[in-house]
Design brief:
The complex is a heterodimer. In chain A, 50% of the residues lie in helices and 16% in strands. Chain A is built from 14 helices and 8 strands. In chain A, a hairpin with a 2-residue loop joins strand 2 and strand 3. Chain A starts with 8 loop residues before the first helix and ends in a 7-residue tail after the last helix. In chain B, the strands form 2 sheets. In chain B, strands 3, 4, 5, 6, 7, 8, 9 and 10 form an 8-stranded mixed β-sheet that branches. Chain B has a two-stranded antiparallel sheet with strand order 1-2. Classes of the chains: A alpha/beta, B alpha/beta. At the A-B interface, helix 7, helix 8, helix 9, helix 10 and helix 11 of A face helix 6, helix 7, helix 8, helix 9 and strand 9 of B.
């Protein structure tokens, strides 16, 4: 059962009609193939035009769509030999941040990323993709492990933000994020980050200090959620749509600002409509980004990565 | 202009002003609510003489308190793009910036200076919470980078004194990118084998804490300072329970292993001098540490 977003109502109505027709034709034997095709083409056109001009706030809805491919879906669709690795060796295993070895496009890599979960139980278990310090410390451990064996690191970013909780603060959420940023910047192996859904603030940048940062067409990446920004600057969370607009959090805006390197196209109507196809498109883009980094010496990788982040805001703002 | 207009008239005006007295000569401590005579507060560097509550002070005052007399040199911070997103909420960000600049007579929230601490050259970057909550945008990132660069070229320790609500959301993801950029800056200081000391003052939260502020070789904080990643209100709303007493205060962080020491404002200068003296007393640290392997003795032949 497809979950429709508010602005997808016209599409939902058309697709509902198609279902109804199919149901009717099953019983009566009346040939309605032509009518179904006509409606399907109309629904596709509508979807295409809707998704071609999504507002930033609509993109935030799409980026958070429950049926979008999450870490485990991407792994299932495009990662061979996936071997999950667990724990930070200090305090706990945090399943809000997944990681493990595997092959993408035949290339062995270390995968790390937020996992939001796919049903209610899973979402609670994965804490809605909000990692605690132990999650970030696990990410650091896996990055260093990858470095020891010369394996590239690939991160999938999809989080509302790092978990705001008493325990997280007590165990040094800020310190864990800071060290994770530092670790990513100093990695002596290729590092590709993909913003696949929601790139929420410090919890996102902790996994995104990469040589190449790619981003799904309808993903968002922001310093604060539109709701949080609205409640602070407008003193009212209801202004979230305006805040989303002002924050310039879409892939298209971020590419213009020179903060991401490439936009990964999504299937018609968003990655949630065809998670497997979206994962394939993502795997291709990851492979292409890794290929660009082939043959770079470790010192060059670290130096260029640093220069890339230092150049942000200095050049290319248009 | 005579002494009448210059001196007598303002005096008379001050006398007849309604709020004269309480507000000008006496301050109420926000913590213990006792009254403090303004000269006493000034002499105590804005620390309550009754309860030791540390009130905010401006960067210039802070530097005067820490550094040797005889002045310091401002380190220039490169110009940055103004309002790159043309951000507007209920107010234009451009206007907020201008107001803050007029009020503080500074370009942005961090000033960088090179001065001396007990004769030793040091570079200090000091936050001004009064400038849009000390928030970190491109200009703050550039200030930390400029400070690190000066420290490395002068082979001087870097001291950063923080007071910040976190990232400056009016600069969107560009402000988020200051977290890696400032991390690169302080790593350059560390790679040069120089001490990097952070003094966290009230408040230090969000993206500032989650980047360079938590990466100090030595982490100090002023008593009672709120230091954390998420804001207390956000945490309360998320978990739906009351926060423990003293949560996110400097002493709480010390108890949880996140700080080296909590230092009273009057002791800060001496403590910095002592720590820097000790850190630099050994053989100067080299950029790349020798591997453990190299230090192992050769295997004894049987």
């Amino acid at each position: 059962m497809q979950t429709y977003l508010d602005f997808e109502k016209p599409v939902a109505e058309l697709e509902g009609k198609i279902e109804e027709l199919r149901h009717v034709s099953d019983g009566s034997g009346v040939n309605i193939v032509e009518e179904v095709d006509r409606l399907k083409a109309k629904a596709d056109r509508l979807l295409r035009s809707t998704y071609a001009k999504l507002t930033p706030w609509q993109k935030a809805q799409v980026a958070r769509h429950p049926e979008r491919p999450h870490f485990s879906d991407v792994v299932k669709a495009v990662v061979e030999d996936f071997t999950p690795l667990a724990g930070d060796r200090r305090f706990a295993e945090d399943v809000a941040l997944a990681g493990g070895l595997g092959r993408v496009g035949g290339r062995a890599v270390m995968l790390i990323g937020h996992e939001k979960g796919s049903d209610t139980e899973g979402r609670v278990r994965h804490n809605f993709g909000m990692a605690r310090p132990e999650g970030y410390r696990k990410a650091m451990r896996l990055m260093r492990l990858a470095e020891r064996f010369g394996l590239p690191v690939v991160s999938l970013v999809d989080t509302p933000g790092a978990f705001p909780g008493i325990d997280a603060e007590e165990r040094g959420q800020a310190e864990a994020i800071a060290r994770c940023i530092q670790t990513g910047l100093s990695l002596r192996v290729p590092f590709v980050a993909a913003i696949v859904g929601e790139g929420g603030s410090g919890g996102a940048i902790a996994l995104a200090t990469a040589d190449r940062v790619i981003m799904f067409e309808h993903a968002i990446y922001s310093v604060i959620s539109p709701e949080g920004c609205a409640s602070i600057l407008w003193r009212d969370g209801a202004h979230a749509a305006e805040a989303a607009e002002a924050l310039k959090l879409t892939a298209q805006d971020l590419q213009r600002l020179g903060l991401i390197d490439r936009i990964v196209p999504e299937p018609l109507g968003g990655a949630q409509r065809d998670p497997a196809a979206a994962a394939k498109s993502l795997a291709q883009a990851i492979g292409a980004a890794l290929a660009e980094l082939d043959g770079l010496a470790p010192d060059d990788l670290v130096a260029r990565r640093g220069e890339k982040f230092l150049a942000m805001g200095r050049t290319g703002l248009g | 202009m005579s002494w009448l207009t210059n001196f007598v008239r303002p005096r008379i005006r001050a006398l007849v002003r309604k709020d004269n007295g309480g507000n000008n000569l006496w301050h109420k401590c926000p913590a213990c609510e006792r009254m403090i005579f303004h000269r006493d507060l000034d002499a105590a560097n804005a620390v309550c003489p009754h309860c030791d509550h540390h009130m905010p002070i401006k960067p210039a005052r802070r530097l005067a308190l820490l550094l040797d007399e005889g002045g310091w040199e401002r380190v220039e911070v490169p110009a940055v793009p103004v309002d790159p997103l043309r951000f507007r909420d209920r107010k234009r960000y451009g206007d907020r910036l201008k107001e803050a600049q007029t009020e503080t007579e500074e370009k942005d929230a961090v000033i960088v200076v090179q001065g001396r601490l007990d004769g030793r050259p040091v570079v200090v970057a000091a936050f001004n919470f009064g400038f849009i909550g000390g928030s970190m945008g491109i200009a703050v990132g550039e200030a930390i980078l400029a400070a690190a660069n000066r420290a490395v070229t002068q082979r001087a320790p870097l001291i950063v004194i923080t007071a910040s609500g976190g990232a400056r959301m009016q600069e969107g993801a560009l402000s988020l990118m200051q977290m890696p950029r400032t991390t690169i800056a302080v790593d350059q200081v560390k790679a040069a084998g120089l001490p990097y000391i952070v003094v966290m003052t009230h408040p230090t939260t969000g993206g500032v804490t989650a980047s360079f502020a938590m990466l100090g070789d030595i982490a100090m904080a002023e008593p009672g300072a709120i230091i954390g990643f998420a804001g207390a209100r956000v945490i309360e709303e998320t978990i739906g329970q009351a926060l423990p007493k003293g949560f996110q205060r400097a002493e709480y962080l010390l108890d949880h292993g996140m700080l080296d020491m909590v230092v009273h404002r009057r002791d800060l200068r001496d403590r910095l001098i002592r720590v820097l003296g000790l850190l630099t007393a050994g053989r100067r640290a080299e950029g790349a540490p020798a591997t453990a392997m190299a230090a192992l003795p050769a295997p004894a032949s049987a």
